[in-house]
Hints:
Two copies of one chain form a homodimer.
Chain A: E1 9-12, E2 18-21, H1 27-60, H2 62-83, H3 85-91, H4 95-105, H5 110-140, H6 142-164, H7 168-190, H8 195-222, H9 228-264, H10 268-277, H11 280-284, H12 287-297, H13 312-335, H14 344-374, E3 376-377, H15 381-401, H16 404-425, H17 432-466, E4 470-471, H18 477-492
Parallel strand pairs in A: 3-4
Antiparallel strand pairs in A: 1-2
Helix pairs in contact in A: 1-2, 2-4, 2-8, 4-8, 5-6, 5-7, 5-8, 5-12, 6-7, 9-10, 9-12, 9-13, 9-14, 12-13, 13-17, 14-15, 14-17, 15-17, 15-18
Amino acid sequence: MTSNGNLEWRVNMGDGTTEILRPEASFMKNIMMRIKNFIWGGLLLKAWKFLEKAWGIANSEPKKAVHGLKVGLALTIVSIFYYMRPLYEGVGGNAMWAIMTVVVTFESTVGATFYKCVNRVIGTSLAGCLGIGVHWIAAESGDKFEPIILGISLFLLASVTTFSRFIPSVKSRFDYGAMIFVLTFCLVSISGYRVEKLFELARTRISTIAIGTSLCIFVSMLFCPIWAGSQLQSLTARNLDKLAHSLDGCVSEYFENDDDTEEMKNNEDEKNNNSKVEGYKCVLNSKASEESMANFARWEPAHGRFGFRHPWKKYLEVGGVMRKSAYCIEALHGCLNSEIQAPNSLKLHLAEPCKALSSSSSEVLKELSIVIKKMKKSTKIDFLVSNMNVAVQELQNAIKSFPSTQMEVSLSEQEEEANNEDHKAATTTIPPLMKLLPLATLVSLLIETTSRIEHVVNAVETLANVANYDSEDEKKKPSSSDNHDHNVAMRVFPEA
Amino acid sequence: MTSNGNLEWRVNMGDGTTEILRPEASFMKNIMMRIKNFIWGGLLLKAWKFLEKAWGIANSEPKKAVHGLKVGLALTIVSIFYYMRPLYEGVGGNAMWAIMTVVVTFESTVGATFYKCVNRVIGTSLAGCLGIGVHWIAAESGDKFEPIILGISLFLLASVTTFSRFIPSVKSRFDYGAMIFVLTFCLVSISGYRVEKLFELARTRISTIAIGTSLCIFVSMLFCPIWAGSQLQSLTARNLDKLAHSLDGCVSEYFENDDDTEEMKNNEDEKNNNSKVEGYKCVLNSKASEESMANFARWEPAHGRFGFRHPWKKYLEVGGVMRKSAYCIEALHGCLNSEIQAPNSLKLHLAEPCKALSSSSSEVLKELSIVIKKMKKSTKIDFLVSNMNVAVQELQNAIKSFPSTQMEVSLSEQEEEANNEDHKAATTTIPPLMKLLPLATLVSLLIETTSRIEHVVNAVETLANVANYDSEDEKKKPSSSDNHDHNVAMRVFPEA
């Protein structure tokens, strides 16, 4: 009996398999089954996977789903203008432009919506005026010259405006406006209407566009607004946290490599840990999104704790120096998988100061993240930076206090060990300097990372000053900043 | 006498300055002068600077200017459709849609234009069909339910489609199409027309959009076409060259630092050199542009040496591994400015092998750049890679051959020198291990870079195989690839 209740005959073949006997009539049925299977297995499975993915996105970033609903809402509202007859007759067939404006200018962040709306209104108005002017001149100059004047002006204006979209300052602020400018200019200057009719047309079109843009701005700001500025802020804070975890993770992984890799191998913790260690990769790839967010944030009105002229560019500077630290951490991550291992005695000697340094630097990064998240100057940061500098000093002392003679001894011990193993595993000795390479690299990359983190501290401090972050305690500041300067000096000239 | 020929009286003031006596009547003149100065000095200067910048862009990238001219041309042609009365009456007022299509879908690369045109046509057709269907259902179900059905269907469709634009697979291929889909659906389903009239409307609108899109594709492909694919290819090749120059520049700068910094300081050469050394920064920042180019290149028809299914994604993989090498070079660049310098004897000992390694690795990168530029497999690349591996081996040998006792001696020499200087400059000794740090870092980053370059070689080889690059000489390949494998093995297990 098969699963769908039909009887079937099986014949035992010579090679031990069985073959099912089917009547010829079921040939078509067979084909139908296959098509059915194809549809179920192929297309529906794909569709199901697609839906699952979409569900995953909606779950992890509900803001995106909210944006979809907001667009639906705005369009439904504007379609009332279009659908209801009294209103429809009021704005005429131009109501189409209100719908078009909503579809085209409604973006996921408030800033982007503002940018597009402002660009659309300015572009349409400017091009409308210019178009009417050119149209009038062409109409006045007689039937012969009219098409020539129109053609040449159109060609020149379209070429120049399109080219201007490549100029960075235009591209970042008026890219969309330039496109709308060309579009409106074409439609107005070429249209067969007389100038008086054009004014009437321009009036209704601009009023419908105004309806569309104001509705967009209204809906995007009132229902769960998504501010580009807040997103930039939280991205920066999150990236600082990720850097801190990566740095900590890399160093502790390097020094714990030998002891517990075996136990950790099949562990969930390790996977978690790995994703934490590789958080720096997000920082490496966040340049483009940071720039577009900062670009849109400029268009946003004052909201929450962000004033009108909040220095968004400073966030980009923080992002830039953060990325420099991330490059260093990437190189540091490369040290983890080196085949050559430093002599154990040296590794043990340096493990503590290295871990101390990495944890104190990641403390600094975490504090900076809190500064940006809470928009409050930190009283602790100077203390943490000086802690970090002390840790650098201690690491340098540890290197110094490891006398070269002892290094010699420990290295030759290692050599002997290796020689002994030679008889079993046929490995030859690794010379002293070679063995030092990875550890030396780790240490100096760690120190380099620290100095880059100090640039991040400076960038965040500049941001906090320019953006007028609240300070928790005004009185403590001068003395601790002196202290900080002193510590920087100590780090740069360690022997001073 | 002033410059404009008027007499003026000066009065000597008590504090030694002079004050000019003016008649009261010239007050207005003065203000006019100031406004004039403001216009000339402020606005016109800004405009002049802007024009200069634009001219610079047009000069350095004439393709951008050409794109402007192409848009102008396409718009002038399409406006003929709109302007000429016979044609105008033929396609009706819908000719507007042809102009709109040209303005909106004409992009600078052929691929991007194709992407937008195909999306526009598909989106419009699909939404048109669906819109007419929904419109019919709503009209059939009576006056009461009509607005409800229309409103709900519009809300659902707009929300779902807008949300789907966040799903990566939709975003990369159908982002624009989804927007057009929502737009057309709204316009069609809400319109007050009867279904028969809608069919007529849809027919003319789709035909005008077809005119617009075919004109766009025609102009963008026939007049100096700018292919996204070729741009991706040349960007990849250029980035490989830049990496090679950076690597070479960093290492030679490190070892030549002491001798000729003074002479080079005020030299034009140095500036040039610096921009070459910092070429890796371009590689670090090229991810976004590579991705968008690869995305558009998929839409391009076969052209030149690129077949229809050219593996554009493989270029992204090459870009990815290239960026990993760039991270390493960035860290290496950080070593250049270290305050602690390695003992001279050690530096001298390692200078030659380091330079040899960097020049052999940059040879590999340059050869890869030629492979991609010419789309021809290289017979030299295996030889160059084995050269690079030999150079790694030699650097390792050089480190080994520097006996630790001699290191000890040279280090203590340095210490003594430092001690002697102590009396003059009050610097204390820097201990042996500390002094080694920057050089050890440089060496191991250099070796790490080499191993990452080997990944680049593999990625380019995969690309060459998948894209069926011509091979210069088929016979030589098997033996040399064996040789290559052997060399890789040597590098990974240096003591094998």
